[in-house]
Amino acid sequence: MTAPLDNFSYQNPKNSKKGFLHAENVSIAKLAEKHGTPLYVYSEKGFLEPFKALKRALKPIPHTICFAVKSNSNPKVLALLKQAGAGMDLVSGGELYLARRVKCPGNKIVFSGVGKTEREMKEALAYQQGKGIFSFNVESVEELNLLNSVARAKKTKAPVALRFNPDVDAKTHPYISTGLKKNKFGLERSEVFELAKNIPSNIQLKGLSIHIGSQILDLSALEEAFLKLKEVVAELNRFLKTPISFVDLGGGIGITYKDEVPPKIEDYGALIVKHFSGTGLRILIEPGRTIAGNAGVLITKTLFRKSRDEKDFLVVDAAMNDLMRPSLYQGYHAIIPVEQELANRGDEVNSDVVGPVCESADCLGANRALSKSISSGDLLAILSAGAYGFSMAGTYNSRPKPAEVMVKGSTSRLIRKRETYQDLP
Ligand code: LLP
Q1: 107-139, pLDDT tens digit by residue?
Q2: CA of 166 to the centre of ligand 1 (A)
Q3: Smallest CA separation from ligand 1 atom 9, residue
Q4: Mean local confidence (pLDDT), 63-80
Q5: Cβ(40)–Cβ(21) under 8 Å?
Q6: CB within 8 A of 219, min separation 6: which ones?
Q7: Which atom belonging to ligand 1 lies closest to the Cα atom of 290?
Q8: Nearest ligand 1 atom, CA 324
């Protein structure tokens, strides 16, 4: 089983009997020839289709979809989604800078994260000639106090949502589970009330936010969090002079990497509509993976084969620095040959696809059934790499970061140049 290949499919180029993997209508083999490898290749439709599906699903209620910039922060991706109507969920001053570069309207921006600095707060309050952003999602008493003093110095009020930690198990990988009491994120229920009763003078309490984790496959965990959130909103509204006007429900739902069956976007939207229509609340969501995950692949070239008794190693030119998910979370990414013939030969051997980095953890895919005919120079596609792929890339082992290409229909454009050695120091 592999990820759905909606916008990535094998096609035969004109006058060719051989099939090659295409992104929309562009041959990935050609892109690799032109831009080299490792290479991230994205499909515009890959981003837009899930984004539009989310929009349709939330249509019955007032909402803003704030794309989680951390999942894919390429400015061209951000511009594409902004153009389609997305706002942005930011977690750093760097991401605020990117939002400014693509002119994201401030009233569609939320600033999340447990550790905002004074400088980041100042910059966000000053966004778009001082119009500022829609909300700071505040996670601690000390953060609220610092934000208050920064706002006071600027003679303004900072719009705030308190991030409530609902103590719900999202049943996902522990590293990306965030809604349990033991996690560093958010405020406990009692803290939310304490803060709401003593809101400092330069803070405007507008909303509440939650985010229980990423790659969520079970809507019941989200529903449990929604119920707890609604209960807190109702309780707060009993004493607040200005009632809560919005809730931010955090990141989106999981995707298929291998054989996971994620909830349908329509059902996720329907659950939100069921719980929040008629409440008068604006709904914000901060999806990253749902939109970007299956919009991109990482293309790598085979360097060498090493045969061992129990398995073969395919040493490729991409590594853990280019795509960190397999080494960091044992994340599964399907790996398929770019040349169709190599995908259907029936001579598969058990193979580990490994990179050149000097760590045993540098394995992009373990125990994969891959043709023994794959040899030096053959291209492989690592699927579902659109979210938390390039955005988590680094230069460990002094490896320049890969290039990124965006495909639309039959056209492609380079949206980030490959780094060079000169970029390393
Ligand atoms: N909002 C907040 C406050 C978040 O912390 C996150 C993700 C999101 C939204 C977006 O979540 P999504 O819709 O993508 O599930 N690097 C990990 C994922 C880390 C997620 C961190 N927070 C991975 O590659 O699986």
Answers
A1: 999 999 999 999 999 999 999 999 999 999 999
A2: 17
A3: 251
A4: 98
A5: no
A6: 253, 263, 267, 268, 271
A7: 13
A8: 24
